[in-house]
Specification:
Elements lengths: L2 H5 L6 H6 L4 H10 L3 E4 L5 E5 L4 H10 L5 E9 L8 E9 L4 E8 L7 E3 L8 H12 L2 E3 L34 H7 L21 H4 L17
Parallel strand pairs: 2-5, 6-7
Antiparallel strand pairs: 1-2, 3-4, 4-5
Length: about 220
């Protein structure tokens, strides 16, 4: 067997490899196949806007026909409470034939109770990514086989990656009464001062962690009430 064919799964010729290049023809072909698809400007890799009604068909096509058979990640964006569409789901697919990525951006229905079709039946790797997006953003992935929180406990009342969740966190009682009784502790916000995800290499530990100017306390400054 030709080594190239063996590397590519035995069914892709050198001519087909050139046909699979991510160029304008490739992009135009995709846009022609899917009416609810559009190109989104981005500098690093081909980025596509896809209506959620077409997301399954697009992913099947990219996986089975275009060699994008590896889901690298799936996450979400909270565009802000004032946005017409508040939440979007973002996926990155990788092709070992193209040796390149495609990013897919797709809006969620309903800003108050966002939903999105689960794609875990197409890419099993999406299973835990969708659970994390549900946990952190409150997006319900329809027909997910086991949609439950993956980082926070089930009764946790907040969604930490939403824009309305403060950078310093929200003080929340621990979920187990027996733990609270023994430790006499609650879940406290982490010290965050100076700006989101801005770290310093100098000074005390709290000085070197990500900080937020609006809610700041350190070893030397008490937490605001």
């Amino acid at each position: 067997m030709n080594p190239l064919s063996r590397t590519c799964g035995g069914n892709i010729t050198l001519r087909r490899l050139f046909e699979f290049m991510i160029d304008q023809d490739f992009t135009d072909s995709l846009l022609g196949k899917f009416k609810n698809l559009s190109k989104r400007h981005h500098e690093d890799c081909l980025t596509l806007d896809c209506d959620p009604s077409d997301i399954s068909n697009l992913l099947f096509h990219l996986r089975d026909e275009e060699t994008f058979d590896l889901m690298v990640d799936l996450t979400a964006i909270d565009h802000n409470e004032s946005s017409e569409t508040r939440f979007s789901v973002v996926m990155h697919l990788y092709s070992r034939i193209h040796r390149d990525y495609i990013r897919i951006h797709s809006p969620c229905k309903d800003n108050d109770s966002p939903t999105f079709p689960s794609v875990s039946d197409i890419f099993p790797a999406a299973n835990w990514h969708e659970r994390e997006a549900y946990d952190m953003f409150g997006i319900t992935f329809e027909n997910h086989p086991n949609l439950k929180r993956i980082l926070m406990w089930d009764e946790y009342p907040h969604y930490p990656l939403r824009k309305d969740f403060p950078l310093a966190g929200i003080e929340t009682p621990l979920p187990a009464d027996d733990v609270v009784e023994v430790t006499n502790a609650s879940v406290d916000p982490a010290p965050m001062m100076g700006g989101p995800f801005v770290s310093s290499t100098d000074g005390t530990m709290s000085d070197s962690e990500p900080r937020a100017k609006d809610e700041s306390w350190t070893e030397e400054m008490e937490k605001p009430q």
